[in-house]
Amino acid sequence: MGWFGGYLTRAPRPAVPVGAQVLLQDPPVWSDGVPVRLVDGPDGRRLVVFGPCGATGDDLDRLMWAGDLRSLDSAATAWAGAYTLLYGDGHGGQTVWADPAGACPLYTCTFNGSTVWASSSMALAALCNSMPDAGWMAAHLVDPTGWTPGFSAWSNVEQVEPGHRVAAGLGTEPVPVPYWTPPTLSREEAVDRLRDDLAEGVRIRVAGRPASSDLSGGLDSSTLAALAARCGPVTGVTYHPEGIKAGGDVDHARLVARAHPAIRHEFMALGDSHLPFSDLDALPLTDEPAPSAITVAQFTAQLRFLVDHGAVVHLTGDGGDNLFMPPPVHLADLARSGRWLRLAADAQTWARLYRQSPWPLLASAVRRPRTLAGASRPMPWMTDYAKELAAPVTTAYPDTLSMGHADRALLAEARYVGRTAATENQLAAAHGIEMHNPFTDTRVVEAALAAPAVERWSARRYKPLLSDAVAGLLPPPVVRRGAKGMFAVDHHHGLRANLQRTLDLADGRLADLGLINPAAVRATLRRAVLGVDIPWGRLEPVLGAELWLRAAEKVDQWTTWEERAA
């Protein structure tokens, strides 16, 4: 996997990861497979940029000569891409910036009395001999998208809150300080910025490189494939059920490929060997449970397909649905501001979409805003002990500068997707693929967040912000279409084919920790085998967490460290 990290201050006995490139010596800073730009400034100052960043060399030179915190704070979100800044003051102190969208998660731990930071929590867990954190795990199971400030999946390893910088100097302790304020734009300005930053975010990743992109026929992946095609040849990959190579998604994918001749369109058939719940033992360890744990057989086959077709960098549309298909939580903001006529009209519109009465929506807008954002009660398999353990770990929303309900919900969801997409990228890296998710970039998230909440959705148009941003880029039928096809039925088929192995997951580490009732999990799985619709979005994190806990027992095999003299 690609990752990076370092020390915030000089350390008497620093440890560095074996095989990593040491960029700075005192205190040590390193990178292991992540693109790096290193800039020298006056008085021994150094700037390191990790990850894809749209800054030019002149941009970075000017930033180093300015050398003040205000300029550096602005630079942390000034350019397209997903990147992390590290600044050395020339006197042994370091400052590191965690991006506001959470697409480049940062973690810290204490080793030999010194603070170590890194982009990988499991790398720090190997350094500190950490075990999985039971409180974090309980919170993850109670609410998979919940916010757990100061915690990670590993004990004694803390995540730096997105939008904060952490600094330490001689004789000072590391202190996280917020540096980010969300922008406010008109809808037209937000659309223009979304168009520009999304295009630039794709360009800096694929230009001049053997690139591929998902091409499902949906709006998100089609946008990325088309933007990549503007930069040069790109392999667009459409996955389809075996024996079905026409209709629906496949036809829309073909429309996009025909409109952009630089797209080399490839098809990958998905058969019984790719079903969910297959080859679960093949799952590599990641920083936390990966969303694709249950579909690892399909994901692994897709990565091998990309390698066979010469791809080095791959684009996915993760995060697009979360940004451009918001739930009706803006109704709570209308209620709070007393805009009753607009509230009544929008509630009726949502009710028609949901085919229900508007009264529950109105009641939630006034009394239970979080339910409009998708919050639900704990599942029946969660134990009382798990709920008690999760309560002090989670918060409803991160501290988001007095935002409204819709803005807070969007940012929390974007940060969750950004952080978990990083685990998917770790899985891809294990197969030699550098995977990127431009919809999780800070400036892309900012563009969606900056648009007025009441103008992010439409009852008549699918993903209106993105549709307007890509006008002229994609064929009109692709822009006008609604949601793309779903393959939930595959979960039922895969479960039937792998039932005993899946049932065995109920009696494992989670049960030993007292976090789940295995009988309730097994009962739910057996209902699914019969074809009953179950809450897959809440059950899959349980099964994925169990697989992750089993792999976590060998965390020291993934990253090794060596101590050296200061």
What does this structure look like?
- Helix 5 runs antiparallel to helix 16 (442-450).
- The chain has 566 residues and is of the alpha+beta class.
- Helices cover 41% and strands 15% of the residues.
- It folds into 4 domains: 3-182, Glutamine Phosphoribosylpyrophosphate, subunit 1, domain 1 (4-Layer Sandwich); 187-274 and 288-323 and 413-480, HUPs (Rossmann fold); 327-405, no CATH class; 489-552, no CATH class.
Summarize the topology:
Layout lengths: L2 E5 L7 E3 L3 E5 L2 E5 L3 E5 L5 E5 L6 H10 L2 H7 L8 E5 L5 E4 L9 E5 L2 E5 L2 H8 L5 H9 L15 E2 L4 E5 L6 E4 L8 H20 L4 E4 L4 H11 L4 E8 L6 H12 L3 E8 L25 H13 L4 E3 L4 H5 L5 H7 L3 H15 L4 H9 L1 H4 L11 H7 L14 H25 L4 E3 L5 H9 L13 H6 L6 H5 L8 H9 L1 H6 L4 H4 L5 H12 L6 H17 L8 E3 L3
Parallel strand pairs: 14-15, 14-17, 15-16, 17-18
Antiparallel strand pairs: 1-4, 1-10, 2-19, 3-4, 5-6, 6-7, 7-8, 8-12, 9-10, 9-11, 12-13
Helix pairs in contact: 4-14, 5-16, 10-11, 10-12
Tell me the number of structural domains. Answer: 4
CATH homologous superfamily classification of the largest domain: HUPs
The CATH class assignment of the largest domain is Alpha Beta
Assign the CATH topology of the largest domain: Rossmann fold
Strand content: 15-25%
- Give the number of DSSP strands: 19
Compute the average pLDDT.
91
